[in-house]
Write a structure and sequence with these properties.
464 residues; alpha+beta; Helix Hairpins; Heat Shock Protein 90; 15 helices; 45% helix; phosphoprotein; ATP-binding; PAS; transmembrane; phosphoprotein phosphatase activity
């Protein structure tokens, strides 16, 4: 009997089912987009939800064979994936939020949870392939894993918090939903919403109010006292009036520096999780800092020795890198005696071990910030060394705390705000670098800030 090449009578039905599913998803997207235009505050959730509903409806229709039709495994891939399927797959990949579809093994076998599908945002965040990887290898947060289990085996929708690992803290809102599972397999949808900016804004407001109210109390009380004195018995005393006005001017300047440093620190912390994209020549940045501090160093009677080679280029924000070097050099000048030398150096092309190697023999050494290690990365290290009083071992761990000052070094003609090293730490953290301090009482201190170098010849590869 000859082979009948006429189309199967169920083919139009299957095609109609796929068309209907795709149309339903498309209508959902259109409706959600219309609502999103009227409600910008929830537009991101609406668009993401519409795309996910469309994908799920299309997958469900495609996975259910019609009577007499071959299973999806027997149909060529080009037949199974029509235009609607490719469009929805593109939408799934284009979502800004990480989204994963999780399958469950046995209820008591946590290692059986696998990633069925992960969009590009999820692959970049979790460093996972598109499909097939064990979930526990990518995420180990117990709250998220528990929520996934409840969705897989209890059909319960959950929302919880998720904190990504690494030196730069990021906060996510994880939402888990059970999915209609073809062929009886347990499936769950996991989405992550980045709430880092929201959390940082909240912390910034709280910290600013707490720090400002605490640190501004002393100069404000001082100003109030001098004003009261000038209005009283010192009103007709020119010498006392001039002396009090000089003190008041110094206190007002201190408050101005304090507010400026607090705002700078808050701004840096707010953008700390966003990597910079510019290019910075560390040698030129260090030379600019030396020029800017020349007047201060001459007034203090301190010499600055600069030794920087060419080629120390990194990916970064130039203004922030200059602020790092300037804060470190300013501290070195401030705590140096007249006639002392401040040394600023630059080493380039170092591996991680050489970048973090000791540079001040016999001194106590502590890493104040350690970046995530990456294979094959070369570093450029900026060193700032002073020969001042130095610091005892117990002070080193607290140097980057806000308003921390080493006992006995709080006073001086240019008393700082106690925020300089905190700003340095957060800037270096944003640039994926590290910070090390070495010090010994009577021998001075040496700070090393190291940054990943830029290879301008080859672009950075995108994660798979």
């Amino acid at each position: 009997m000859p082979f009948d090449e006429s189309p199967s009578p169920v083919a139009p039905l299957a095609s109609s089912r796929l068309w209907t599913a795709g149309t339903t998803g498309g209508v959902a997207v259109v409706v959600m987009l219309v609502i999103a235009a009227a409600r910008p505050d929830i537009s991101a959730w609406l668009i993401g939800g519409a795309c996910i509903v469309a994908i799920v409806s299309w997958l469900g229709a495609r996975s259910q064979p019609v009577a007499g039709q071959a299973s999806s495994a027997d149909v060529p891939a080009t037949s199974r994936h029509g235009d609607d399927g490719r469009l929805l797959d593109s939408v799934f990949e284009a979502l800004d939020d990480p989204v994963l579809i999780i399958s469950g093994g046995e209820a008591d076998d946590i290692a059986g949870r696998r990633i069925v599908l992960a969009n590009r945002a999820a692959r970049e965040l979790l460093r996972v392939p598109r499909e097939g990887m064990l979930l526990v290898s990518a995420m180990r947060d117990p709250n998220v894993l528990e929520a996934i289990d409840e969705a897989l085996f209890g059909g319960i929708s959950r929302t919880t918090d998720y904190a990504a690992g690494g030196s730069r803290a990021r906060h996510w809102k994880a939402w888990v939903r059970p999915l209609p599972s073809p062929e009886g397999a347990a499936l769950a949808l996991l989405g992550l919403r980045d709430e880092t900016d929201v959390r940082r804004m909240e912390l910034m407001r709280v910290d600013f109010l707490a720090n400002a109210s605490h640190e501004l109390r002393t100069p404000l009380a001082s100003l109030s006292g001098f004003i009261e004195t000038l209005k009283g018995h010192a009103r007709d005393d020119p010498a006392a009036r001039d002396r009090f006005l000089d003190i008041m001017a110094a206190q007002a300047e201190r408050m101005s520096r304090l507010v400026a440093d607090l705002l700078s620190l808050s701004r840096i912390e707010l953008n700390e999780h966003i990597p910079p994209s510019g290019r910075v020549d560390l040698g030129r940045a260090a030379a600019d800092v030396v020029d800017a501090l020349s007047v201060l160093s001459q007034d203090k009677g301190v010499s600055i020795h600069l030794a920087v080679p060419e080629g120390g280029r990194i990916t970064g924000d130039r203004d922030e890198i200059v602020q790092v070097i300037q804060n470190l050099a300013d501290n070195a000048i401030k705590y140096s005696t007249t006639g002392a030398i401040v040394e600023i150096g630059l080493d380039i092309g170092l591996d991680a071990d050489r970048a973090t190697a000791p540079r001040m023999p016999g001194a106590t050494r502590l890493s104040l910030l350690t970046p995530d290690r990456e294979i094959g990365v070369r570093y450029a290290a900026v060193t700032v060394r002073d020969h001042g009083p130095g610091m005892a071992r117990e002070h080193l761990p607290r140097l980057t705390e806000r308003f921390y000052r080493v006992e006995g070094q709080k006073s001086g003609e240019r008393a700082g705000t106690g925020l300089g090293l905190a700003i340095v730490k957060h800037i270096i953290n944003r640039h994926r670098g590290g910070l090390i301090v070495e010090s010994s009482p009577g021998e001075g201190a040496l700070f090393t800030a190291y940054f990943p170098m830029t290879d301008d010849r080859t672009p950075s590869p995108m994660p798979a």
